[in-house]
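Researcher: Here's the sequence for the chain we discussed earlier.
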Amino acid sequence: MVKENPKTFLWWSLLLTITLFGSGIILGIFFESSREQVISQNYKETETFWQDVRLQSFFYQIMNSDVCEQAIKENLNFADRIYKEGLLLQKYEEGNEITGTLLLDKKRYVLLKTEFWLNSIILNKKCVNMSIPTVVYFYSQYPKSINKKAEQAAVSSVLFNLKEKYGNNILLIPLAEDLNITVIDIIKDKYNLTEFPVVLINEKTKFLGVPKIEDLEEAAGLKY
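Model: Thanks. This is the structure I predict for it:
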């Protein structure tokens, strides 16, 4: 019977450990790269689509009310697309600290949603009889405590239920307020937003903390 050399066994064990560890790192890099590529590709597609919407926004400023129906329809189509893309981005964020390319994509999405919101304000002023309530949710990308994180999760749940209930009859626009984006800082100053999370309804009514869905409905003119 041949005895196995203990040193040989140790070397094989070490080699196996290094191989498995290296494979794990390679797979981790691969999945992270794949995830960022998906986000980047989704953004490029959205950005191309948004170029058309941005041109429309210039038209909204000079249009007559007789094209309101089509203009609002196209704006809503873009809203739905941005909303779904945002859910995908949120899925990739869960359980991971947002860094690098993912952070850049997050900022781009916030800018796209902000421009959509501003377009919606223009349309609501132009098309008074067809105006749609805006529900803008300002939250912290980096909440400073577990309690604040839980509070934001509760607000998100209320707003999700509101969106599910009313669909395209409301415009739900979540915006991260702490990504060092100048236009967001200007908006916070304009509406005196200093505590977060906060929900802004129709650029008039603010709700701090976790609001009741009935109060949001009333402020948005959805409760009769």
